[in-house]
UniProtKB/TrEMBL annotation:
Protein name from the UniProt record: Rubrerythrin
Species lineage: Bacteria, Bacillati, Bacillota, Tissierellia, Tissierellales
CDD domains xref list: Rubrerythrin
Domain Ferritin-like diiron: 1-143
UniProt keyword annotation of Electron transport present: yes
InterPro entries found in the cross-reference section: Ferritin-like, Ferritin-like_diiron, Ferritin-like_SF, Rbr2/Nigerythrin, Rr_diiron-bd_dom, Rubredoxin-like_dom, RUBY_RBDX
Keyword terms of this UniProt record: Electron transport, Transport
Cofactor(s) this protein requires: Fe(3+)
Native species: Peptoniphilus olsenii
Domain annotation Rubredoxin-like: ranges: 148-181
Pfam families to which the protein is assigned, alphabetical: Rubrerythrin (PF02915), RUBY_RBDX (PF21349)
Highest taxon of the lineage: Bacteria
């Protein structure tokens, strides 16, 4: 695939993905403000953006049906074990390279809220990488992840399988606020 087109598709994929999430977030705000039909509109439009992102994602395949290894590291749809490796590697990249660079800029610009948000994300991404590895260990044995609960901190994105934790170790959020999956 032509590099410029590939770059443009990746950019479009990112933009559509962000729009998908942005509309879900804005739909939650609309619902809290008492506008359920506006939330429904945001949700429907969010699903449309996901469709667009999927189209761009699928268009990134090269002529052999694979994704370019160098430019799409961690990208692509493969078997679960490989997807978990890609997810883990993405989380490691974010926590070791991307966010530290972003934090340095935000600190230089004295953007305290941005620094806090990115530090939360960095710490959570490190945990996500561990959770993906745990899941991969099970999958590689032909088993599903053996957990009763998956709990998400709604403040920083920390994920735990341990429902005995009293608070989030990253941000201090109390466990009664965690979202169970």
């Amino acid at each position: 695939m032509n590099q410029m087109t590939s770059d443009n598709l990746r950019s479009a994929f990112g933009g559509e993905s962000q729009a998908h999430m942005r509309y879900l977030i804005w739909g939650d705000v609309a619902e809290k403000e008492g506008f359920p039909n506006v939330k429904r509109l945001f949700t429907a439009t969010s699903d449309a953006e996901r469709i667009h992102a999927t189209l761009h994602f699928n268009a990134l395949r090269d002529v052999d049906g694979d994704f370019p290894v160098v430019s799409m590291a961690g990208f692509g749809i493969k078997e679960t074990s490989e997807n978990l490796v890609g997810a883990k590697n993405g989380e490691i990249f974010e926590s070791t390279q991307m966010y530290p660079a972003y934090i340095a800029v935000a600190e230089m610009q004295e953007e305290k809220e941005a620094v806090r948000a990115m530090k939360y994300a960095t710490a959570a991404e490190e945990v996500h990488a561990k959770r993906y590895q745990e899941a991969k260990d099970f999958v590689d044995q032909g088993k599903d992840l053996d957990v009763e609960k998956i709990l998400l901190c709604p403040i920083c994105g920390y994920i735990t399988f341990d429902d005995t934790e009293e608070a989030c170790p990253i941000c201090g959020c109390k466990k009664d606020k965690f979202v169970e999956y």
